[in-house]
Structures are given as structure tokens and as C-alpha cells.
Amino acid sequence: MIRIREYREEDINAIQAIWNEVIEEGNSFFWTESFSLDKIRGILERQDAVLCAEDTENGEVAGFYILHKNFPGRGAHVANALYAVGSRFRNRRIGRTLAVHSLETAKRCGYRAIQFNSVVSSNTASVKLWESLGFERAGTIRKAFMNPMNQPLDIYIYYREL
């Protein structure tokens, strides 16, 4: 069973491992280099919320999300988020659980909408998830993402009012 809980400092190694695994896979995030603990710690410190999906059987962090402003100033009412689930825990609806939780967290943080700026078109699980949760595809940026085989792929912008 999975429960969503607030991030704790002792989660940093698990978050680093998951984040770097997704970077290495090369199918979701633009980054190509692994993140150090200091870099991740710096990113986490700037978030409005950091939540972990914990496997209640063994206390392991299975995934996480971070929530922050998508824009400054007059656009600060629109959130953005990043989600990652460790490969060992995929296909267990943990991503959906994190996504649904993040919508409520965003509301509690005072956001009026969430926008994702770059969902890679080949990431069919994410595309299916966001569309099933009522996000609309607000745009397509053609050939903006290079996959590990150096093939250009489209990215989608998704938006949903809260």
C-alpha cells in the first residue's frame, strides 16, 4: 500500500536515486546529467510542496512530486509540478495517486490552475494520465525533445484549472 506524506530530510537519497534514474532513462526530463545531493537539496528548498509516495510495507520512497509556481508575478497563480516514480514501483497507479494528491495540494497552496510545459509525446503513460484527469492539451511544440536515440519528439503543454 502507498501513502502520500510530506518530504523528510532522510528521503533525500531516495529522491536522488529516483530523479537520476528518470534522467538516465532519457524519456521524460530534459536534463542529461545526474543531480548531486546538493543540487537536489537546493531544488527542494525552493518548492511550495514536496511530497513522497511511501510504500507502507517497507517504508521505502516509491516516488515523489514537487510543486511550485510556473510563472512569477502576474502568473504566480498557475502551478507547475514534477513527478517521478522509481522503476520498481511503476504500473501500480502510484503516479495517479501522486497526481490526484498534487491537485488538492495545489488548491491548498492557493493556485488556480496547473500547467505542464513539457510532457514528451512518447511518454504515453503521462499523456493518458493527464488527459484522464481533465487536463487539456494547450499546445504542441514540434521536435523539441531529443530522446536517447537522438530522435526529435514533440512535447505537449497541458493545462487544468483547479
For the largest beta-sheet, the strand count, sense and barrel status come to: 7 strands, mixed
Proper CATH architecture: 3-Layer(aba) Sandwich
* Rg from Cα: 15 Å
The N- and C-terminal alpha carbons lie at a distance of 27 Å
Order of helices and strands: EHHEEEHEHEE
How many helices in DSSP terms? 4
Q: Assign a percent range to the helix content.
A: 25-40%
Which regions have little confidence, pLDDT < 50, spanning 5+ residues? none
Outline type:
globular
What would you say this structure looks like, in words?
The structure is a single chain. The protein is of the alpha+beta class and 162 residues long. The chain has a single domain (2-161), classed as Gcn5-related N-acetyltransferase (GNAT) (Aminopeptidase). Helix content is 29%, strand content 36%. The chain is built from four helices and seven strands. The chain has helices at 12-25, 37-45, 94-108, 124-132, and strands at residues 2-6, 49-55, 61-69, 78-85, 113-120, 136-146, 152-161. A seven-stranded mixed β-sheet has the order 1-2-3-4-5-7-6. The chain is globular and about 40 Å long.
